[in-house]
Amino acid sequence: MNLGKQFKEGLLTNNPVLVQVIGMCSTMAITTSMFNGIGMGVAVTVILTLSNVIISAIRKIIPDKIRIAMFIVVIAGFVTCVDLLIQAFVPALSASLGVFIPLIVVNCIILGRAEAFSYKNGVAASFFDGIFQGIGYTAVLLVMCIIREFLGAGTFGGGILNGGDGIRILPEQFPIGMLTLPVGGFLVLACLIAAMQWALSKSKNKEESK
C-alpha cells in the first residue's frame, strides 16, 4: 500500500472527474455555490469510504455473478443513512441538493471504485482509496463552485458566508449569468478537463525526455 501514490492518483493522475470522467451529473448540476460543493463532496466521500471498506471486507464471500447487485445494496444502505442525517441536521443542504443525494446510489464514482479497487484490495487500502478519491472529487466540485459562483453571480461563499448570500465581489451587472445554468457547468468542466489533460501530458513528456 503506497499512500503517496494513492493520494496523487485521487487528486491528480486518476482524478474521478477530470481523468476518469465519471460522476458528471452531480458535478455539473450542483456546482453553483460553495455550500452545495462542500455538502456533496463530504457526502460522497463518506459514502465512498464506508462502501469501499465494507465491500473489501466481504469481497471473498460475494459470488462473482451478483457482485454488482451486492455493491448497490451496500451503497444504498449508506446513502440512505447519510440522506436521513442530512435531512435531520442540515435541512437547507438537503433542500438545495434535492434528488442528487439519493442518486449517489448510482454514482459512477462509487460503483467504479467498488469494481476497480475495493473488490480486489484489502480493507486498509480501500479505506484510503475512498478518502483520496473523495478528496479529488470534492476538490473539483469546489473549484467549479468558485468559478461558476464568482463569474456567474459575482459572489463568493454562497450558502455559507454573509447569511447565505455569499460575499459580493463583482457588481450585479457584471457577472455572466449563463455560467450558473447547465450550459455553464459544461463549459467550466470542459475547461478544467482540458487543463488537467494538458498538465498530465506535459508531465508525461517531461518524464520521457529525461
UniProtKB/TrEMBL annotation:
Compartments it resides in: Cell membrane; Endomembrane system
Keyword line: Cell membrane, Electron transport, Membrane, Translocase, Transmembrane, Transmembrane helix, Transport
Keyword Signal: no
EC number(s) per entry: 7.-.-.-
One cellular component term from this protein's GO annotations in UniProt: endomembrane system
Parts forming coiled coils: none
UniProt xrefs under Pfam families: Rnf-Nqr
One of the GO biological process terms: electron transport chain
Residue ranges of the TM segments: 37-58, 70-89, 95-114, 135-156, 176-200
Keyword Hydrolase annotated: no
General function of this protein: Part of a membrane-bound complex that couples electron transfer with translocation of ions across the membrane.
Self-association state and partner proteins as the record states: The complex is composed of six subunits: RnfA, RnfB, RnfC, RnfD, RnfE and RnfG.
Protein name: Ion-translocating oxidoreductase complex subunit E
Source organism of this protein record: Candidatus Oscillibacter excrementigallinarum
